[in-house]
Amino acid sequence: MTDHTEHVEIALTDELLGIRRRLHRHPERSFKEFETSMRLRNLLESHGITVLDNPLDTGVIGEIKGEHDGPQIGLRADIDALPVHEDSGLVFASENEGVMHACGHDIHMTSLLGAAFWLAAHRELIHGTIRLVFQPAEELGQGARAVADAGLVDGLDAMIGTHNNPDYKPGQIAVGVDPMMAGCVKFRVNLHAQGTHAGYPHRGTGPLEAMAAMVLSLQTIVSRNASPFHPLVISVTEVHGGDVWNVVPAEAGFQGTARYFHREDGDLAERRFRQVIESTAAAYDIAVDYVWDDFQRPLVSDPDLATLAMSHVPEYAQLEPIHPSMAGEDFAEYEGHTRLLFAFIGSNGSGGCADLHSPKFVALDDAVKTGAEFYANSALEVLEHLS
Fold first, then answer.
1. Any idea which architecture 14-181+299-386 has in CATH?
2. Average pLDDT estimate for 133-152
3. What does the DSSP 8-state code read for residue 248?
């Protein structure tokens, strides 16, 4: 690298450990991260980092200008928590009842702060500008879109993001050109029939049999239509209909999700979904309305940036193959605005450890160091590459 031949090493200091614990103790849900945002702003300013105006109610945007002109890139960490009651056994467990950093966003924030503090102290190595995007509401899949719509990523030549992954150990990083996290669909189906007395079913057009047929038929989309070499998931997760034992209800419905890695598979699933729902409703002589909300695209890094990162990660961490996740990540929404680089950061790696979103989820402190070093090293590498 220009003026920087050694990789960045960032110590896991008492300051960073304290930050991680405070953030973990005080989690806040999506778009309600008020205290978290105030804390982040104060921490950035205490290290001489400029905080930019933000029209959103939550989230923080920092900026570090290097001593040399060059491109502009973004480093992003998500800041929201989940409505989960913590059962991790940590001495610094959540003090906010029913809310927990069960996805490890406290690790993400602390990692980005660690990188930011180091970069702000080494501006002579920065050829360009680094924007620090502490993004709200990733868990709703709406935060990245809100940040982009507010113009907060305008002018960026690339964005770098991470997510901790308990399948890997601290010190391990998975990055590459393959798909990493799935595209996400939320679907909802409402059936409208003619209710009747349960003893006289012929006098109505009950919706429950039609709903059962739809739910079963949707499972054949994966088993009989999709390529076995492309992961595709369609899950019905909630059903409802009727509340009296002797009445055939007039209304019923269900909802669920689809996950995919390839655009053609998402299109296939939608096409067959519509056919199954409409043809089954017609066969049972009932009315139906439905929503297929393909709200989040698959997350795939820019090939050039991913190849660049893969070549440098072994200098400071153990490079691992990507094990793609069927979970979604709204970092993918920035793809329409700039080039993306994303990595999984090892956060546990012990056999049988709890997964993301579990009340027992535990991310180890050392993951902060791994994440911070990925942010800082990748920022300098990408700035040089784009120059």
1. 3-Layer(aba) Sandwich (3.40)
2. 97
3. E
- Phi-psi group of 40: left, alpha or beta (phi > 0 → left; psi -120 to 50 → alpha; rest → beta): alpha
Q: Is 4 annotated as a binding residue?
A: no
The reply, when asked if residue 105 is annotated as ligand binding, is yes
Residue 6 pLDDT > 90: no
Summary mean pLDDT of the chain = 96
Number of helices (H) and strands (E) in the chain: give both, helices first. 8, 14
CB 215 within 8 A of CB 280: no
Q: Nearest Cα to 178, choosing from 346, 333, 310?
A: 310
Is the C-alpha dihedral spanning 15, 11, 353, 168 positive or negative? Answer: positive
pLDDT higher than threshold 60 for residue 54:
yes
* CATH class of segment(s) 183-295: alpha beta
pTM for the structure as a whole: 0.93
**Ramachandran angles phi, psi of 198, nearest 5°:** -65, -25
Buried-exposed string 235-257: b where 16+ CB fall within 10 A, e elsewhere: ebeeeebbeeeeebbbebbbbbb
pLDDT in tens, 57-79: 999 999 999 999 999 999 999 99
Is 357 marked as a binding-site residue?
yes
Give the domain ranges of the chain: 14-181+299-386, 183-295
